[in-house]
Design goal:
With 349 residues, the protein is of the alpha/beta class. The chain has helices spanning 24-32, 45-49, 53-58, 77-90, 104-108, 119-133, 151-167, 189-199, 213-223, 239-248, 259-277, 279-293, 300-308, 313-323; strands spanning 3-4, 7-8, 13-15, 37-39, 43-44, 68-73, 94-99, 139-144, 171-175, 204-207, 227-230, 334-336, 342-344. Helix 9 (213-223) packs across helix 10. The protein is globular.
Length: 349
């Protein structure tokens, strides 16, 4: 079982923080299909510290959205602690510090993955946040395996990792790519194995190239990490969580989601988005989710184009009625696999 401080999770499969994606509707649908824990979209500490509508939105934690981690990103140690305190008081169960984001404008402002180049500042942030909320809330950190592939980056990574656990951090999520890699090239799982060996009983959550239940099981088996953070692999694919749970419990991999099951998941997600955003904004936001959901459909290219064209709530409903009618005769549903590839249902796993 995966433990994050005093929080005991039923399974080791978590919904990672995803900027622009892991909002409340996505977290709810991930939990519905088996995610044991979820994180909010990463937020800037300055937005939490400033009074206004955005702060109120960030600090609104739904009663059915637990356990939830609040992921913070920033540049200055002074800004992290008050933001962490506000999020803890608002109802977030865990405070997670983002030292991993590879986006260029984020790095240019000294945030996210840039922290990996400054161990002293990174550890000061961890200490400040631990002092502020650590008595009541677990503090965790998200890292990549370094800023780049240099030996200096490697040393800095381990300086932060070791210091974080010495400070009393509850868990560290490690993505197997460097910051400069962004999402290019494979995630280095052998590095995760090295990290887990180094920290012993320290909790490590693995991340990177987790697009199927088989991959999630393989990373745990090959590296020894305590859990996995499913990020891009969960967009438009909440079934990955039930598949992970099935394999983890020694059962067979479930059949790929039928057209009827796909319609149910998309409709539930859509209704949650309408409740949260309203019809107009939900149509815009759900278009990008629909594009990812379409990868499961046996006529994926046409369904993708239909979602791309959606502009209104009525348009979204039309796509469901046309392409997700379970009474129609459809080709065999195919399973979305690693990196969005597909295999025929029933093929060798």
């Amino acid at each position: 079982m995966l433990k994050i401080g005093p929080i005991q999770l039923d399974t080791p499969f978590t919904q990672a923080a995803l900027a622009g994606y892991s909002d409340l509707p996505m977290r709810r649908i991930a939990r519905r299909y088996g995610a044991a824990y979820a994180l909010n979209e990463v937020v800037l500490d300055k937005l939490v510290n400033q009074r206004g509508k955005k702060r109120n939105e960030i600090l609104g934690v739904a009663g059915d959205d637990h356990p939830i981690g609040g992921q913070l990103m920033g540049a200055e140690p002074d800004d992290f602690a008050p933001a962490a305190s506000a999020m803890a008081e608002a109802g977030y169960d865990v405070i997670d510090l983002n030292f991993a984001c590879p986006v260029k404008k984020v790095l240019g402002r000294g945030r996210g993955g840039h922290m990996l180049s400054q161990p002293d500042r990174a550890l000061e942030v961890i200490r400040r946040v631990r002092d502020a909320v650590g008595a009541t809330h677990p503090v965790t950190v998200k890292m990549r395996r370094g800023l780049d592939n240099t030996e200096q980056s490697r040393r800095r990574f381990f300086e932060i990792l070791d210091g974080a656990f010495e400070t009393g951090i509850a868990a560290v999520t490690v993505h197997g790519r460097t910051v400069k890699q962004r999402y290019i090239g494979p995630s280095d799982w052998s590095f995760l194995e090295e990290v887990k060996r180094r920290v012993g009983d320290g909790v490590i959550i693995g991340s990177g190239d987790l697009f199927s239940a088989e991959a999630c099981m393989r990373i745990m088996r090959e590296t020894g990490v305590d859990g996995v953070a499913i990020a891009r692999g969960g967009i438009g694919n909440p079934w990955i969580f039930r598949e992970c749970v099935a394999l983890w419990r020694g059962r067979r991999l479930p059949a790929p989601p039928s057209i009827e099951e796909q319609r149910l998941a998309i409709s539930t997600h859509w209704e949650g988005a309408v409740d949260f955003y309203g019809d107009r904004l939900a149509a815009k936001i759900m278009r990008k989710f629909g594009i990812k959901y379409s990868e499961h459909h046996p006529r994926s290219p046409e369904v993708r184009d239909a979602f791309i064209a959606v502009k209104t709530a009525a348009g979204f409903a039309d796509v469901l009625d046309k392409w997700y009618d379970p009474t129609k005769s459809w080709p065999a549903v195919r399973r979305r696999r690693d990196h969005g590839d597909l295999i025929a249902a029933g093929a060798a796993e």
